[in-house]
Specification:
Helices cover 43% and strands 14% of the residues. The chain is α/β, with parallel strands linked by helices. The protein has two domains: 201 residues, Rossmann fold (3-Layer(aba) Sandwich), CATH 3.40.50.720; 239 residues, NAD(P)-binding Rossmann-like Domain (Rossmann fold), CATH 3.40.50.720.
């Protein structure tokens, strides 16, 4: 197989590097951050992703994966280079391309043989053209191959994807990438699923670049939509979980991402929606739907805290917050709804104690106490609020929880619990858009 370089070995780059090595390529990861480079060279992944530490270590032991800070070494004999550096949001919502530019200039300095340079990071639409000007076009072809990795299931998403999108104006570059991905396209690698082969989309640069933005915007829209329906369900006495089940049976709609709750978070949705809006503005367009998606998500925190304050005087209340990571399976706190809820509750005068199976500290919230277990977190609490639906919480003994609490208010911010099981334990249940749920009667 070919030698492949992966520039930037943060979350996306580390997953890409380990997975490409596992399907037979020789991979070198380029990392400029000394502490991260040292960590990866030691086989330690500096973030939580199930299965990645084991895969990375095994590929390093086989000699198919290594890490370096030298572009010269990485570019030597390399046929394909994946750009996986960060593109954080600027104040106006547009992506910061400094890391992309720095990486491109370094590649251009050391590239010595024909190469395909692939943007794997979510880059601004039009980046392919811009990169072609930065890097010698006689030696390098530019392609776009957007990533669709979900935190907590990134290995599965890379090795068993729904689709692979390859964008370039150079047919030979696309052909090269097809060969890179052939073991995944055919699911012929060890552990492959020949009965579940991904779709393959060949297109131009701009189309591939917009695909990731469009996909994330649509998923965020589904969540904001069902959260808006949940507000109506509460107002009229309906159950949004049953509404979601019914409309999700329509194949045109589908059931995924129709779980009402406290809103979406994480590093992707907000950043990509902002970038999509900024791109639209730069072309004289107004992105009405994406603006509404963001507005509904921001309002959801107010709606949620308002439901809690209707049942409990927050000033002086003791509240247990179960779950800090923005979703199960990760330690990522970026734009996490839990932190927004915690800040709001603390601002109202509540004492908040949190527990998360993975996250053990939140430096930016000095007034948030962190407990070593869920039983410690709920001890003496007036209300328990489940914000992240970790399996550990879904399997809690609710009777034990009720016995440890001082109050009886159980707030299910993800509609993840069986209402009858909660009320049978003697707790008063509050969900999102589940006004028809019953609480114990005196």
């Amino acid at each position: 197989m070919s030698k492949i370089a992966v520039v930037g070995t943060g979350y996306v780059g580390a997953v890409v590097a380990a997975c490409l090595a596992s399907i037979g390529h020789d991979v070198v990861g380029v990392e400029s951050n000394p502490s991260r480079l040292e960590s990866l060279r030691s086989g330690v992944v500096p973030f939580h992703e199930p299965g990645l530490p084991e895969l990375l270590s095994s590929q390093m032991e086989k000699g198919s994966l290594e890490f370096t800070d030298s572009y010269q070494d990485a570019m030597d004999g390399t046929a394909v280079t994946f750009l996986c550096v960060g593109t954080p949001s600027l104040p106006d919502g547009s992506p910061d391309t400094n890391q992309i530019e720095n990486a491109a200039r370094s590649i251009s300095e050391w590239v010595a043989n024909p190469m395909v340079v692939v943007t794997k990071s979510t880059v601004p639409i039009g980046s392919g053209r811009w990169l072609n000007e930065l890097i010698d076009g006689d030696r390098v072809s530019i392609a776009s191959n957007p990533e669709f990795l979900r935190e907590g299931s990134a290995l599965k998403d890379f090795l068993h994807p729904d689709r692979i999108v390859l964008g370039s104006d150079d047919a030979a570059a696309i052909a090269t990438l097809v060969e890179v991905y052939r073991p995944i396209i055919e699911q012929s690698f060890t552990g492959g699923r020949p009965d579940h082969r991904p779709g393959l989309v060949r297109t131009n640069l701009e189309t591939a670049e917009i695909v990731k933005y469009a996909a994330n915007a649509f998923l965020a829209m589904k969540i904001s939509f069902i959260n808006e329906v949940a507000m109506l369900a509460d107002a009229v006495g309906a159950d949004v979980t049953e509404v979601a089940t019914a409309i999700g049976m329509d194949q045109r709609i589908g059931s995924s991402f129709l779980a009402a709750g406290v809103g979406w978070g994480g590093s992707c949705f907000g950043k990509d929606l902002a970038a999509l809006q900024a791109t639209a503005r730069s072309h004289g367009l107004e992105s009405l739907i994406t603006g509404a998606v963001v507005a509904v998500n921001e309002r959801q925190i107010d709606f949620f805290v308002g439901k809690l304050s209707d049942q409990l005087d927050l000033a002086g209340a003791t509240i247990a917050l179960l779950g800090l990571a923005f979703k199960p399976g990760t330690d990522d706190l970026r734009d996490a709804p839990s932190l927004k809820v915690a800040r709001r509750l603390i601002d109202f005068g509540a004492t908040v104690t949190a527990y998360d199976p993975i996250v053990t500290s939140v430096p930016e919230l000095a007034n948030l106490a962190i407990a070593p277990s869920w039983t410690d977190a709920v001890s003496g609490a007036d209300a328990t609020v489940v914000v992240t639906e970790w399996d550990e919480f879904l399997s809690m003994n609710l009777t034990t929880l009720a016995d440890k609490m001082a109050g009886d208010l159980f707030v299910d911010a993800r509609n993840a619990f069986n209402v009858a099981a909660v009320t049978d334990a003697g707790l008063s249940y509050i969900g999102i858009g589940r006004a028809s749920a019953h609480t114990p009667q005196d």
